[in-house]
Design brief:
The protein is an alpha+beta fold. The protein contains ten helices and twelve strands. One of its GO terms (molecular function) is kinase activity.
């Protein structure tokens, strides 16, 4: 699988494109060399034959047919290896002179240049060989064939062709190997950047992308990213400092205002004034709850994976939350179904997980009409712990499912309900701390009230883990984030959307 993924990288595809261009260039070069080499050798052979024909023609013009026969016999006797081929015959192909006994079949069909095989059909006594000759008619109805044994030339051409084929094969293999190695080297550095980036996104803001000191493109990219991270951390620290200052400056007067309103509520005797004071106290509580929720989400997002994790039973934790909210569902005459496996265990912060589960159940009850139904389930699926909370409420449109985890975002249908739009943001922050993920879907697609099914996937607790790995993770977590500030009692209350 790793090799297949390597072949899909853009680096390998670019190397493959370069290989095709390079191989095409090599092929054209070798083809040109072959064409020029083979063509030159063929031209040399044809010129040799033409020279012998010119010599025979001169002898024929000076000495006639008898002189031509004599010179052919002399040349045959001087060439025992029969490199040159001669055959002089009558118009009915009877041999008069030469080192071939029978006229080749190809020569009986056409005049001019022919290629044929030297075998027993033409009176050849040795092994079969290839030959090239020129055939023409001599005055007096005679036929003359002058040629050369081109077996060595043909063998040389085949050797050149074989060398070209092997050269192309070796070129392609080396180019493919080079492309793979170059892609692998590049992919390794990209994987390092991706791995560090994922850990930074999970909250390890102190991590930086390593460089090799070569000042190449990747080092420059890593330096730029590291400088960008430094700037982001600096700005986040500034924002956090401002948020803390706002918290200290506004939370105290808000609390005093709330207390004064509560004292006013207890002091007034007029029913109308009491109602007004009660509403003011409720609004102040809502302001304090929203403010504290916002601060808590900010702390969760900056703490990364530094939660105080212990081994807990997710089933027991969810069952406790269900027991707390079951009465609220009964008040709305809602069916509250539970399918909880007590065997599912995870590592996590119990308080944060309990708050996450409480937010999900509270949302399900809030947005499900009376006589609706709610289902809470915990199970192990595909090597993960799965928490599922589904309802028969108004649901969330598909176009808005990706936006509901943003702060203060509320679906149009739910704006009439009380809340501040921070509940699912807190759920998302807690899930990221525990290295999980959330999936939203319609419980009953296509209906007017499709309902909502929220699935939270969390890593299962693995009892067998290397001690060194655990120590390493703890050290990385300790070095990547700052310790969380102690929360006030007001902030530790449940935050609902």
């Amino acid at each position: 699988m790793k090799i297949l993924s390597q072949l899909k990288t853009s680096t390998f595809q670019l190397a493959l494109l370069y290989m095709v261009v390079f191989a095409t260039s090599v092929f054209l070069l070798l083809a040109f060399i072959y064409w020029r080499t083979a063509g030159f050798m063929t031209e040399q052979t044809d010129e040799t034959i033409e020279a012998e024909i010119a010599g025979l023609a001169e002898q024929y013009r000076g000495r006639g047919v008898n002189g031509l026969i004599t010179i052919i016999r002399e040349r045959v006797s001087r060439d025992p290896n029969a490199k040159s081929l001669y055959l002089l015959a009558t118009d009915d192909y009877l041999k008069l002179a030469g080192n071939l006994s029978t006229w080749p079949e190809e020569a009986q069909i056409q005049n001019g240049w022919i290629n044929f095989t030297l075998d027993d059909k033409v009176g050849w006594k040795g092994s079969e060989r290839l030959a090239r000759a020129r055939v023409f008619e001599v005055q007096g109805g005679l036929r003359l064939l002058v040629g050369r044994d081109v077996q060595e030339l043909t063998t040389l051409k085949r050797l050149i062709e074989r060398a070209i084929n092997w050269g192309m094969g070796i070129t392609l293999a080396l180019a493919l190997l080079g492309g793979f190695m170059m892609s692998r080297s590049t992919t390794k550095r990209i994987e390092v950047i991706n791995a560090i980036s994922r850990r930074i996104m999970n909250g390890h803001l102190s991590l930086r992308i390593p460089t090799r000191g070569t000042n190449d493109d990747f080092d420059q990219l890593a330096d730029n990213l590291n400088q960008m991270l430094d700037r982001i951390v600096y700005l986040m620290e500034g924002i956090r400092h401002v948020s803390d200052s706002i918290a200290h400056d506004l939370r105290t007067p808000l609390t005093r205002l709330r207390n004064q309103l509560e004292n006013t509520l207890m002091a007034v005797d007029n029913d109308e004034a009491r109602d007004q004071a009660a509403k003011a106290v409720s609004e102040a509580d809502q302001l304090l709850a929203t403010f504290n929720a916002l601060l808590r989400i900010a702390r969760l997002e900056t703490r990364g994976n530094a939660a105080d994790k212990t081994v807990i039973s997710l089933g027991e934790l969810v069952a406790d939350a269900c027991e707390l909210y079951e009465a609220l569902a009964e008040d709305k005459d809602q069916a509250f179904e539970q399918a909880i496996s007590m065997e599912v265990k995870i590592e996590g912060d119990r308080d944060l997980l309990f708050q996450m589960v409480s937010n999900l159940i509270d949302n399900a009850i809030k947005y499900t009409p009376e006589q609706g139904d709610i289902r809470v389930a915990v199970q192990e699926l595909g090597g993960e712990a799965v928490l599922e909370v589904s309802d028969s409420g108004i649901g969330i449109p598909d176009s808005e499912k990706d936006n509901v985890f943003q702060r203060f975002y509320r679906v149009g249908k739910s704006r009439s309900q009380p809340g501040n739009g921070l509940g699912l943001s807190l759920v998302s922050a807690v899930t990221e701390i525990h290295q999980g993920r959330i999936e939203l879907s319609d419980r009953r697609p296509g209906e007017e009230n499709p309902g909502l099914c929220v699935q939270v996937f969390l890593p299962l607790y693995r009892p067998i883990r290397g001690k060194a790995l655990r120590v390493q993770e703890q050290a990385e977590q300790a070095g990547a984030v700052e310790p969380e500030e102690k929360e006030s009692p007001q902030e530790s209350s449940l935050t609902q959307s």
